[in-house]
Amino acid sequence: MRFHRLALYSAALLAINSFQGLNHLAFAEEAAAAATAEATQQKADVAVDTSSGEAYKFQAEVSRILDIVVNSLYQNKDVFLRELISNASDALDKIRFLSITKPELLQGKTELEIRISYNKEDKTLTITDSGIGMTKDDLVNNLGTVARSGTTKFMEALQEGAADISQIGMFGVGFYSAFLVAEKVTVATKHPHSDKQYVWSSVNGEDTFMIGEDPRGNTLGRGTEITLQLKDNAEEYADFNKLDQLVHHYSEFVTHPIYVRKTETMQVPDEEDESEEGNDDEEKELDVSEEEDADVDEEEKPKKMKDVTTHSWVKSNADAAIWNRPKEEISDDEYQEFYKLIDKDAYGQNATSWSHFDAEGSINFKSLVYMPSNVPNHFLSGDVHKFRSSMKLYVRKVLISDDFELLPKYMSFITGVVDSDDLPLNVNRETLQESKIIAIIRKKVSRKVIDMIQKFADSPMPEKEAMEDEVEIDEEGNVIEKDDRDVEEKEHPYLEWYKKFQPSIKMGVVEDDANRKRLAKLIRIKTSKSEGKWISFSDYVGRMKDWQKEIYFIAGHDEKELQKSPFMEKFIEKNLEVI
Questions:
Q1: pLDDT by residue (tens digit) across 439-449?
Q2: How many C-beta atoms lie closer than 10 Å to residue 242's C-beta?
Q3: DSSP letters along 243-292, please?
Q4: Lowest-pLDDT range of 339-353, 361-375, 482-496, 547-561
Q5: Is the pTM higher than 0.85?
Q6: Which of 124, 189, 468, 575 has the fewest CB atoms within 10 Å around its CB?
Q7: What is the DSSP string of 524-572?
Q8: Gyration radius of the chain over CA positions
Q9: Would you give the distance in Å from CA 338 to the centre of its chain?
Q10: Helix (H) and strand (E) counts in the chain
Q11: Residue 37 forms beta bridges with which residues?
């Protein structure tokens, strides 16, 4: 076989590209956006000189907040990323809104996105958005000197013991949570109405900050770039897996795409280590004989490998918050996929039913709740105290908590989301749990859950599936029709579900006074006259004697033994039905 040396080089290049995972196709727009982002990132990787600039002193209340953050014993430092992403999302929403009447604001940079990158060697973390950006005055006013109502409210709530660091973003001062993990924070920003890009910087523990022109020039085009110089005990945040996990947990349903820069090091053949022999006749054709092919394994020497570092951008959040979309536009498959996304106990199984609704009135919120097909793992212990909520609470599609009791204990098997903009600012988890707003949400969602289960219970029996079993043929070749009595009657799907979850429904009848009558309609029972079938209380009441005022029941371990119980003789004699 004869090959040209250039052909062999081309084949080797294709092999390396395939090995590195570069043999995929991408839309031109995506490729251009990724290239632009990488170019911007390379500029951002250059350290910013913040020594020059104008010094400002933090406003007194801001200094107090910083002292609390710096000295906080709050263990969950992860919330800083949620707050910075939330701020970035707000900036993107603002530029999108303004661009409706002023499309020129998006000129030169149409992408509305958030990008997160890190540098393990330098111990830095950078969050960049293409939002509205800030002018120099905005930096002065928003990041340090002007007293804000949110700052005052947050301080008052802290003094009253009604808030902790995790609620900092609810007061509009979430930016300062960056100091939970950073020794120094640097903010570069470019506003469309400003000719210059400015830099804000402050060192953890100091009561001053610097603002000046960015010596790198206009690297952003538009938007804001926040760089955190991580503390020694916060180096875990300079890791792709950690950042990707936090975005999934807190900001998965933020409207705008969130990309995390993934840095990988892999080994590839070292092309520079090739033998210099034959370099003079590179244009000569290579003649490879069959004998040489046979001995290739013996003559081939192990290739020298070298480390190559690659960077790629990985989208870490979902495309959209499904509960914000009109129900008519969502398919059943999309609902089921979302269920599997939020319910870690689903293990790939579909939900039995769901309810998607908007609640309007004194409190407005959107919700999507699911009935699982199997009992969740935390129910298997039977310990009510271990039943944990499976509902997630969002504010403007940003996760606030996944451990609020948005439903009663007996409904802990229900999975879903609640998204509301009407939550109060100056309350912590414990106070919010007992607040009027949560009480209203709990009441409305509970009613919707009961309605969902009742609708499922009242649904018509699914049509019989076509018989797939082998059919019997008579001597003349005709199909022998089976008598319906020979076919075992199939239970309603609700009964299959009820057998698994009946302890929860009965627990609700005992504990939930407000919904007791509604829940009683969901109960299914067997009686002395039901012939082993499940019936409802309505069925029982409909068969009561005219003079009968009570519902009779007998308890025991075995139905057959109860039927033979001496206590049943009088009821059988009077033809009374007993549960």
A1: 888 999 999 99
A2: 16
A3: HHHHHHHHSTT-SS-EEEEEEEEEEEE-GGGS--TTGGGTTSEEE--HHH
A4: 482-496
A5: no
A6: 468
A7: EE--TTTTT--EEHHHHHHTS-TT--S-B----S-HHHHHT-GGGHHHH
A8: 33
A9: 10
A10: 17, 18
A11: none
Confirm if 411 and 504 have CB atoms less than 8 A apart.
yes
| C-alpha torsion sign, points 472, 478, 479, 484 | negative
Count Cβ atoms below 10 Å from residue 80 Cβ, excluding itself. 28
Q: How far apart are CA 447 and CA 402, in angstroms?
A: 20
CA distances 197 to 8, 38, 113, Å, are: 49, 19, 19
Q: Are strands 208-213 and 198-203 parallel, antiparallel or unpaired?
A: antiparallel
Residue keyed to tokens 């797939």 = 468
Q: Which residue has the tokens 């700052």?
A: 151
Residue 467 contacts by C-beta under 8 Å, 6 or more apart in sequence? none
Task: Give the integer Cα–Cα distance in Å for 422 and 441.
Answer: 11
User: CB within 8 A of 153, min separation 6: which ones?
Assistant: 171, 425, 426
pLDDT of res. 248: 86
**Pair of tokens at residue 576:** 């009374």
> Max alpha carbon distance in the chain (Å)?
114
3-state secondary structure 309-348: EEEEEEECCCCCCHHHCCHHHCCHHHHHHHHHHHCCCCCC
Query: Residue 565 carries which side chain, given as an amino acid letter?
Result: S
Contact 155, 257 (CB under 8 A): no
Phi, psi of 10 (to 5 degrees): -65, -40
Closest CA relative to residue 543, chosen from 524, 530, 560: 530
- Distance, CA of 201 to CA of 189 (rounded, Å): 11
Amino acid 128 reads T
Token pair of 207 as six digits: 């009561």
The span from the CA of 141 to the CA of 137, in Å, is 6
